[in-house]
Write a structure and sequence with these properties.
Chain lengths: 895, 235
Amino acid sequence: MADHRPDPDQLLAQVQAEEARAHRGTLRVFFGAAAGVGKTYAMLEAALAARAAGTDVVVGYVEPHGRRETERMLETLASLPLQAVRYRGMVRQEFNLDAALQRHPEILLVDELAHSNVVDGEPPPRHAKRWQDIAELCDAGINVWTTLNVQHLESLNDLIAQITGVRQRETIPDHVLDDADEIELIDLTPDDLLQRLQQGKVYVSDQVGTAVERFFRKPNLMALRELALRRTADRVDAEARAQGLAGSPSRAYLARDRLLVAIGPDAQAEQLVRTGKRVADALDAEWTVVYVETPALLRLSDAERDRRVDILRLAESLGAGTVTLDGTTAATALTEYARTRGATRVLVGEPKRRGWQTLWRPSTATELVKRAQGFDVLVVARQGEEATGRARPHLDLSREVPWSRYGWAAAITAVCTGIAYLMDPTFSETNVAMIYVLGATIAGLRLGRGPGTLTAIASVAAFDFFFVPPRLTFQVSDAEYLITFLVMLAVTLTIGNLMANVRQQNRVAGARERRTALLYAMSRELAGTRGSDNMARVAVRHIAEVFDASAVVLTPDSSGRLQYPAGSSDEGSFRGADLSVAQWVLDHGQRAGLGTDTLPAAPAVYLPLRGARGALGVLGVRPTNRRRVLLPEQRHLLETFAGQIALAWERVALGEEAARSRIAAESQSLRNTLLASISHDLRTPLSVIAGAASTLARHGATLEPAARKSLALSIEDQAQEMSNLISNVLDLMRLESGRVELRRDTHSVEDLVGTALHRLEPRLQHHPVVIDLPDDLPAVSVDPVLVSQVLANLLDNAAKYTPAGTRIRIAAVADAPMVRVVVEDEGPGLPPGDPRLLFEKFQRGHEESPVVGAGLGLAICSAIVSAHGGEITAGHGTHGGARFEFTLPVAVATP
Amino acid sequence: MTQAMHLILVIEDEPGIRAVLRVLLEAENYRVIEAGSAERGEIEARTHKPDLLLVDLGLPDDDGLALIRHVRAWSPVPVVVLSARTMESQKVAALDAGADDYVTKPFSAAELLARVRAGLRRASRGADSLPLLSLGETHIDLTRRVASGPGGAVHLTPLEYRVLDCLARQSGMIVTSRQLLREVWGPDRVGDSGALRVCVKGLRDKLERDPRRPQFLVTEAGIGYRLRPGDLDDE
């Protein structure tokens, strides 16, 4: 059964995609095998039909290439004004993106999806590529129709170059076509196309002369047509599959493939990426391009590192994720990564090393096959023409090792010779040789590979020259010494190399650690920072430091427009940010500026600070040295920084929100309990009052005077009860809001007790009160009103919950630095359960007790006592009743 | 009720309370005029020259406190304030502004009438003290400064006499601690509440039957003291 279950992730993705599509404009691509098949014509024909049906169709950009039919059709359609762009002294007419966004037609025609904008032109275009313009149009809700030839697809680029011998410079990422809502294939047989070409009906812009001839040959056109047809067929198939999935759950639930493409610094990398794209598409797999930075690869030249940047960018544009791993060997890092990511296939290049070399240095592919567990290894054959392409990684010794180190190498050899000379009379030659081995080892460890090798060779030579008879010649009398030399050389070289590797690994580990440390430093400081302004300041400082750049964090105001942070003139802050670019970044959630696809010529790079609920702001960074943000590892680091900032920011925002909603929820529940409790406690006296009052009104004249008086008295009683309740609620609210200021003064407990008793006189009529206060009781420093309220509440409780006639005892003892006051009764005692709960709001001994009081009295006592720094407890009294105890601070000096 | 019909001005914006007060006071043979606002109240006070004012502190047009100050500027007429129980500081402010006493809402008829009677009595006496004071079984001659109880002569210190005298002049009405301190100890010692407390304790020990549950010298927490001679409790 499980096999027939649709993948929930896939269903969710489908639903989300449909939702997004509902607001976006649709993209319709007129797709053909080559120029001249009639894509533009077909598009215009469809446009005329749509306009006839009453649709608002506008031409954004269509190049008629001097064809009369096309021109005639164009004349009848509305067109947008073009943008004049100056470029190297010439003026070009380009598509005007802003005019299109402003006009906002229902359908916009923009020819040639693969077109590149004039990046260096004046004014500079917003995007480097037309497909980006079109993506923005779709995002804005405009339906776009465009045209595309199959040769412009990125993943087919090298394949088509192989077929036709002409490499296309203008390419679009495959996802543009994949995401298009509709693809209309415009098909023409190669023979018809060639005929049209001969008739001059086909305009070929870029290719001239022999190139045209090479391109427009029948086998080429057949191959291109096949590619275009296959591409369209794949898509139709995918659509059918998507429909089938949506329609019936019978299609098998397929675990998704995850493809890793491992690339190195060599020329095959580009081919691997493109092949990876095709394999990933065929498998419908997620794919990731992995580059492993091994110690050996750290020695690459700048040019090669730049190539890597390009390749990783290419991979990203083809829809791959990219990852740079650190590791001692590519194979271990790859297996580890493949395992943790659950990769099902790993794509690697054909091994470069062959024959005996592989015995002691097996290639990555071989190693990977050995270790493969849970994934298949696909080895991609090298393309013939490029097989000999680039040589081994190139050793840039001058950059790695300064020449002075070779001097040190010579010096070490000399010192060894000196020591050996001193040892020579007493030690055998074997031990003297050991000194040289030691010297070469130290050289390998401290000076690096080259000087280490030099020391090894020089040591052997010196040993031979000075200590092997005949001395002071390189001649060797005894052939046995040759073995000594060989072993010595082998040992010193091996040790030296090993040491150099250790150094190299230390450097890698050090770089990795530094990166982690930098991130950690910022995260930690952010974690300890409050308020978004301060956090932005911290982030800017760290980024300025790490990337040697000026940076700024821009946040949107309430209307969503980006603002500079108010009054920040901190070090490293970057004032010259282009707010319109930053705004675009915020609105689209994509990076822009230096080193990106959008406005790559800008002096700064802008990254969205992405939270779970969209962009929170924009990070602008202008590096002093552009390379600092162009290197992929630096760019990734910058993105990680941006991610950390956004995360920290969001964490704080969510925390604040949670606290707010918790407070709101608490006060809401408090209000609810309060209302429920009060409405019950108010209703009881109210019904007595209403009943008594209406009886008096109706039968007052006929009632006995005693009955009349009793009714009136109960009205008075219950009104007093309600008044007490309301006072209690108000008191508690004031106490809890913290707005009550204690008006402390020195008072005797006796006086406070007297006040409370006086206040409660009528209620205590039926309870004898025993007062037990020692004469030497110290005075207390309290707010007399509040403390007599505590006493009154406790006495009131005692009167309320005990039978008439039982005694109530009030006592106090000194318990420095406090005075302990006790109120106990001889009633039924406390209800079962935790007595501490009594001091919670709305707790009453008995549910729905007929005794009125809202359960606030003890909560008020507790609030008042703790405001005075004392504490209140409840327990069982000496005579079985309830006993309440509270402490009050003794007055320090009696004035 | 042999005295002439006293005129009482009730300044209160709540008609329900005004109606109850009118019934209650007229039942006790007082004449009543009403005002619903501070402005109206002041006009009525000037034109009718009432014997006592009952003033609600929360009036729609002006603060009751301001009204009391205005009235005090030209008349020593007794003023009893109607106030909500919870606002101790407001009560003190009203007393400082010149009110003679307060009644807490919701009030009982007995309490209100006791305050009204005490106020009227104070007015009829003017500034003179009661020459003779009876607290339970103790009789005190404030002019001659002698006192006697069931167990013979009671010795009060001069300070205690002066405190008692001050309280007795506004017998039945509240006297703030500040006022007592100012009148007995002098204006420079109004902060010395400890001295007052010791003195009151001394008085209680000598005059009260149970000093821990005082009947005559009652503390009004946070405000001051009140002398309750027995003859006011006989409603």
